[in-house]
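Table S7 (text form). Paired inputs.
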Amino acid sequence: MTLSKSDFDLIKAAIVEDLAGGEDITSVATIDEKATAKADFTARKSGVIAGIEVAEAVLREVGLTEIKRVKNDGDQVSAGDILLSVSGNTRAILLAERTALNFFSQLSGVATLTSAWVKEVAGTKCQVRDTRKTTPGMRVLEKYAVRMGGGTNHRMNLSDAALIKDNHIAAAGGVVEAFAKVRALYPDSEIEIEVDTLDQLRDVLPQKPDLVLLDNMSPAQCTEAVAIVNGVCKLEASGGISLENARAYAKSGVDYIAIGALTHSAPVFDIGLDLRAE
């Protein structure tokens, strides 16, 4: 992963937030300013990691340069595995600790949860896809973590592609009307449209959408939708999907299942920093 300027700005803002214009009063009081140490970022559980480059960037931001990467993003790790090691000024290591862990743990949580979903649909053509339900300011990083977990990304922003949802349809007067308006104004854009019923699917299919989102339909309805479409466009199922029924949706023949939980409900992956004084 190549971090962007906005990623570095986010890292700097996180460190500034932690210091709040002051200093780490606990470390200043207890640790000599010239003291050095070694520390390991260690997995406390099994899962898939993401964000190791972000953790490294946090360490460098506070002046640490002796950094050794042990694992890589996308790796499956076990409890006790060392992921990243750092040597240098002890105060600097502890200043970076929480910010680095916040990023690393959050992104590894997304990757680990995504991996669980991907395993549920293994052996089918269905791909697990994320949404825009991301933490403000962290979309690029969280969508990267989805990829590290084996998932795929939906659009990154509102201008990447059109997604005509129920409120757009209501405002425009129907699925055909909404689709026609988007196609007229943005003839070269990819257009996905949401339908709530199979009748809406039949209505919009002649308009040649790139993708149709089947909203809150059962696996049986998705199977019927696949037969109706017969390869004319791709289908994505969304709503009411859980890890327990993900495989049933995947076996219906849809191309994607859209899972907002990958980013908005991923449990933080437990990573710790173990300090070893030199």
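Next pair, protein 2 of 2.
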Amino acid sequence: MTLDLTRLDHLTQDELWDEQAAASYDTPGIGMSSDEVLGPTLDRLVALAGDGRALELAVGTGRVAIPLARRGVPVTGIELSRPMLDQLGRTDGSDAVTAVHGDMATTRVEGEFSLVYLVYNTIANLLTQEAQVRCFRNAAAHLRPGGHFLIELWVPDLRAVSPSAPAQVFAVRDGYLGLDAIDTATQRLMSHHVTFDPGTDGPDRRSARIGFTPHRYIWPSELDLMGELAGFELASRDADWSGAPFTSESRSHVSVYRLR
């Protein structure tokens, strides 16, 4: 079976991350917006930023940027989706974040930063290796010497992929089902997001909304080579924000690169 994962490549970021997606993206106090997740994230970013400024690539609705600014770090964010930027502007505390509309792989902003960061797999939203390398180079262009570029990224479990089962379930929770269809030849995958809404005729009648997001996954070794091409060296790699060791069983990593 051959998967065609290019059918949504023509969609813009405004279409992929539209008003509905932006309005429902934040989950205050729970999930990726919980204190258990954000606490270690912010602690790490504050330590890396030091006395300098931070630049978030693909800032989205400000889930990380706003609380980071509240911790005293001056934050600028680049975001390509206007609906996500609009949602950021409606969020309490957004006035502390300088938001710029643009592409994280090419857009330059004024000033010098001690930290550039990408969280929650967003470098994989760039769908070619060339664009991902440009992102590294763009990060390097914003950093002062010795500055850091941090990337949070998942590691796909390709051991569970086969021609007879080319899709993986990555999330099952009340009202939501997430599936990844993976093409290992191109390192491309399409995430399918199925959201169930209670029907108007009672709890047994439900409607479903299906959204899609395309990605290109990157192996850690490939990520390191991208860093080398942009003048970085790997400073650390952990399995999560708390600093757990990264192993062959890890399903994610937080990698920090230092600009030479």
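The chain has two domains: 13-156+217-259, 158-215.
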